[in-house]
């Protein structure tokens, strides 16, 4: 399973990449693997506001529908329009081409509560073993 | 398998036959011709299949032989209660006096039809411990919607609706529960499941306040487990001024043994097509009567059957949420349920729940070594939820693969990937009508697949290999659906 360093993670399997007060959000390799073939991604409009921990969108795979949770609060600057026609990108390149949103981060203090790559890896290991 | 059967997926009726071939000879019309509609509404060419009678009979016979139903084998779809439906119930529903009754006929001419409705209302009330029922909902989800709309109207009548905008739903619930709450205009708050498979009591207490309209609880729940302390849950919900709704999809587990009304529920729906004998593999028709105590009875959907001195008539409860459909509900399903109840009797229904639970526990015991069982209490009620997590971790074989491989073993796969809180879930409900040998056969297939997963995981991952059609490309079908198929040559 791919797990890039330099990103922050949530227990709900989103990743966040930071560049100054800007952040990019997507879902993890583990998440896409669990979901299976993804067939639909629903994302909020640019200009809308994300609230940390709240549902901001939906991914649908052939076997299930899953909510997306905001890692931090902020304003949506851009969303990845390609995912509308090519949801399979989420399976192929969850950390690259299948980024979901770019946002302006409101409160850098919220980053404290996110997981390091090591902590996230431990979490997925527990999920796998816990069954 | 015959060539015709193998061929069935590749060539539809449209691709068969030959131009000019006919199944029946239609005499030409010599009389007056009706004027044609305007030219813009007419097509020059209408491509219909052109086959001889023999060809079309073979075509449909081949299709029918590909069908798998409860009359052909075990059909253990968890939460769907695919039990064998006694043929006598179909016969009763087909009696001309019942099947041909018209919904607009005079009450005086259909007293027998109405009496069945009335007695079914009474029987369902006595089985569920409620005071009143409406048979109008045409399916479980419509029964749910009716129940939640009744709660909404009752809250409005007591001036409390503006404050109560939330409905609590456990994370193990059927998807229809949150969908119902949202459709009725409420927001949904999810209650997590505790390690023992019941609702997390602390989370429930934390969420229960003056903003809650109702809690919707499936009893027993989708893990096939009794919601522990449901009477205390009812007290907490009522103390907060909210209503407690029972999703009765799993009624088969407790028939004749526990009643929603006695447990403290205010309103419930039951699925007649599941527990009471209507074949429902094709997705319908169903019936989802809604039942309630005295307090919510004035809000029941119309019509309800009323018994009076002079006979039976259709009535409308005083504060009814209204009609759910143009006519009176899925009457054929109601007749089957009535016939089933009358032929089983209370002792028979107790035997149903006893054998349903016994079969599920026998299956659990046969599979407990080979598969993981999350939220395990050592026993279950009507269904057992296994997890393919060990097979995934050790052999890279997923529940999806296991389900497909069951087809090669000649069996219908169980419900998979539900409830959502169980990873790689296999939700198996054998029901009471499977004989011991059928439960053992199903378990043998599951054990064989667990072994195959270890010995030859590629085989399991490529299943089904013996079915007329292998794995479908579900991802492309969902991403780029081609909903308007045309025969070759048409555009």
Oligomer: heterodimer
Gyration radius of chain A (Cα, Å) is 14 Å
Instruction: Kindly report the average pLDDT value of chain B.
Output: 94
* Greatest interface: A-B, 16 and 15 residues
Helix percent of chain B reads: 25-40%
Radius of gyration of chain B, Cα only, in angstroms? 26 Å
**How much strand of chain A?**
25-35%
- Give me the strand/helix succession of chain B: HHHHHEHEHEHEHEHEHEEEHEHHEEHHH
Number of helices of chain A: 4
Work out the helix count of chain B: 17
The structural class of chain A is alpha+beta
Give me the count of strands of chain A: 9
Helix content of chain A: 10-25%
Any idea what the CATH architecture of the largest domain in chain B is?
3-Layer(aba) Sandwich
Explained architecture:
The complex is a heterodimer of chains A (131) and B (491). Chain A is α+β, with helices and mostly antiparallel strands. In chain A, 22% of the residues lie in helices and 34% in strands. Chain A has 4 helices and 9 strands, in the order E-E-E-H-E-E-E-E-E-H-H-E-H. The longest helix of chain A is centred in the last third of the chain and has 14 residues. Chain B has 491 residues and is α/β, with parallel strands linked by helices. Chain B has 3 domains: 40 residues, no CATH class; 258 residues, 3-Layer(aba) Sandwich (Aspartate Aminotransferase, domain 2); 132 residues, Aspartate Aminotransferase, domain 1 (Alpha-Beta Complex). In chain B, helix 3 packs antiparallel against helix 12, helix 6 crosses helix 7 and helix 12 packs across helix 15. Chains A and B meet through strand 4 and helix 4 of A and helix 13 and helix 17 of B.
């Amino acid at each position: 399973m791919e797990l890039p360093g330099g990103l922050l993670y949530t227990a709900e399997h989103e990743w966040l990449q930071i560049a100054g007060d800007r952040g990019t959000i997507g879902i993890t390799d583990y998440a896409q693997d669990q979901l299976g073939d993804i067939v639909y991604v629903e994302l909020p409009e640019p200009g809308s506001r994300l609230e940390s921990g709240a549902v901001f969108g939906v991914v649908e795979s052939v076997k299930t529908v899953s909510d997306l949770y905001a890692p931090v609060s902020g304003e949506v600057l851009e969303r990845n329009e390609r995912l509308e026609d090519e949801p399979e990108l989420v399976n192929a390149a969850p950390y690259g081409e299948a980024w979901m949103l770019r946002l302006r981060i409101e409160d850098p203090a919220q980053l404290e509560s996110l997981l390091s790559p090591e902590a996230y890896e431990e979490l997925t290991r527990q999920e796998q073993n816990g069954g | 398998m015959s060539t015709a059967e193998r061929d069935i997926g590749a060539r539809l009726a449209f691709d068969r036959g030959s131009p000019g071939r006919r199944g029946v000879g239609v005499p030409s019309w010599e009389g007056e011709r009706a004027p044609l509609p305007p030219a813009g509404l007419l097509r020059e060419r209408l491509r219909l299949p052109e086959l001889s009678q023999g060809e079309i009979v073979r075509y449909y016979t081949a299709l029918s032989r590909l069908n798998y139903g409860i009359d052909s084998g075990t059909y253990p779809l968890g939460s769907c209660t695919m039990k064998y439906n006694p043929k006598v119930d179909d016969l009763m529903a087909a009696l001309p006096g019942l099947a041909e009754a018209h919904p607009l006929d005079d009450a005086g001419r259909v007293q027998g039809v109405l009496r069945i409705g009335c007695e079914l209302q009474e029987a369902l009330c006595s089985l569920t411990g409620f005071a009143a029922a409406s048979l109008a909902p045409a399916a479980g989800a419509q029964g749910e919607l009716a129940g939640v709309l009744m709660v909404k109207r009752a809250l409005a009548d007591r001036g409390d609706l503006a404050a109560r905008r939330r409905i609590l739903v456990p994370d193990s619930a059927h998807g229809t529960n949150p969908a119902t709450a949202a459709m009725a205009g409420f927001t949904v708050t999810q209650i997590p499941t505790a390690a023992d498979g019941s609702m997390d009591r602390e989370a429930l207490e934390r969420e229960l306040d003056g903003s809650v309209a109702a809690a919707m609880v499936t009893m027993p729940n989708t893990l096939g487990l009794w919601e522990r302390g449901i009477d205390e849950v009812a007290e907490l919900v009522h103390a907060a001024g909210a209503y407690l709704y029972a999703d009765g999809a799993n009624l088969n587990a407790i028939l004749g043994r526990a009643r929603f009304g006695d447990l403290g529920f205010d309103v419930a729906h039951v699925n007649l097509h599941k527990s009471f004998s209507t074949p429902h593999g094709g997705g319908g028709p169903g019936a989802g009567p809604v039942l309630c105590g005295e307090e919510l009875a004035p809000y029941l959907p119309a019509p309800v059957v009323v018994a009076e001195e002079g006979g039976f008539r259709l009535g409308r409860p005083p504060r009814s949420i209204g009609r759910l459909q143009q006519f009176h509900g899925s009457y054929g399903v109601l007749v089957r349920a009535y016939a089933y109840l009358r032929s089983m009797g209370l002792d028979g229904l107790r035997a149903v729940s006893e054998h349903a639970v016994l079969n599920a526990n026998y299956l659990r015991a046969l599979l407990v070594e080979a598969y993981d069982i999350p939220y395990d209490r050592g026993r279950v009620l009507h269904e057992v939820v296994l997890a393919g997590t060990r097979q995934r971790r050790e052999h890279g074989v997923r529940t999806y693969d296991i389900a497909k491989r069951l087809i090669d073993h000649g069996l219908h796969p169980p419900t998979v990937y539900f409830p959502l809180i169980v990873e790689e879930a296999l939700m198996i409900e054998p029901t009471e009508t499977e004989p011991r040998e059928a439960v053992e056969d199903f378990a043998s297939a599951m054990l064989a697949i667990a072994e195959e997963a270890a010995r030859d995981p590629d085989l399991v991952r490529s299943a089904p290999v013996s079915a007329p059609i292998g794995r479908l490309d579900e991802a492309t079908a969902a991403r780029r659906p081609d909903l308007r198929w045309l025969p070759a040559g048409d555009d």
